[in-house]
Design goal:
Number of helices: 9
Helix content: 55-70%
Number of strands: 4
Radius of gyration: 21 Å
Mean pLDDT: 85
Low-confidence stretches: none
Shape: elongated
Order of helices and strands: HHEHEEEHHHHHH
Distance between the termini: 8 Å
Amino acid sequence: MLLYEQIRKNKVKTVFIVAGFVLFVLLVGAAISYINYGDALQGLIFTPVFSLFYVGIVIMSSTGIVMRMNHAKEITSVEQHRFLWHTVENMAMVARVPMPRVFIINDPSPNAFATGLNPEKAAVAVTTGLLDRLTREEVEGVIAHEVAHIKNYDVRLSTVTLALVSVIAIMSDIGSRMLFFRSVGGRRDNNQNPIFLIVGLVLLVLAPIIATLINLAISRNREFLADASGAELTRNPEALASALEKIANVETPVKEASSASAPLYFSDPLKKKISGLLSTHPNPVERINRLRQM
C-alpha cells in the first residue's frame, strides 16, 4: 500500500505545484505591465500568448537538442546491444507504452535519462558506465525508472516548466529595460498604487529566482514518483535502491551532461552535492530509504 500511496501523493503534489507555477507566471506578467503602464490587464493578456508561443518552439525541438547536447548515439537494432535493447523493450511492454528509441552515451560515469514529449516519441539514453558497473537487475531498475518518466509524461512536464522559467527570465529582462528607459525619459503614471508598485518591483527582481526554485521542486517530486512507479514495474525496489546507491557513490561526473540537461538524469550527473531547494534531484539517501520501505 505504501508504494501506491507514494504514487498518489506525488501526483497530487505535482498538480498543485504546477498550478501555482502557471499562476506565478501570470502574476509576473501582470506585475511587469502594471509597473510600466499602470495596467495589469495588458500583462494578463500578453503573458499566456507569449508563453504558449515560446513553449511550443521549445517542445518541437527538445528531443533532438537533448540527445545532441549529450552526444548520445542511437542503437537502431537488437544486434548492437542485445541486453540493453531487450531490457528497454521488456520494461516498455510492462508499462504498456511503445518501445522508446535507445541511445548510449560513451561515458564511464553510470547514469541514464529519458526524453520525449509523449510515449510515442520517447527515447532512453544510458551511459556505458551504467552498463559496465551495475548488475543486470540494477540496470533493469534504472530503465524501469526512466520508462516510468515516459509513462507519467514527466519529460513533457519538465520541458514545459523549464520553458516557463525561460519565459519569466525573458519577461523580467524586458520589463527591467522598459522600466529603465521610462525612468530616464521621465514618463510615470501617477495613478499607480505605491503598494502594488513596490510588490511589482520586488516580483520583477525575484521572479527568475523563484521560478527556478519552483522548477527544481517539480523535478525533485517527479523523481520520487518515477522511483515508486519504476519499483511498481519491476516489483523489485531493492534493485533500484542498490543501483541508486552505487551511482550516488561515484564521484566522477558525466562529462557530456550540462546544467540544462541535468534534471533529466536518473541521478545528478554533475555531482554538485547540493541539497535542499537548490538541488535538481532529491537526496539519494531519502530516495533509497523510501524504496527500501516499499
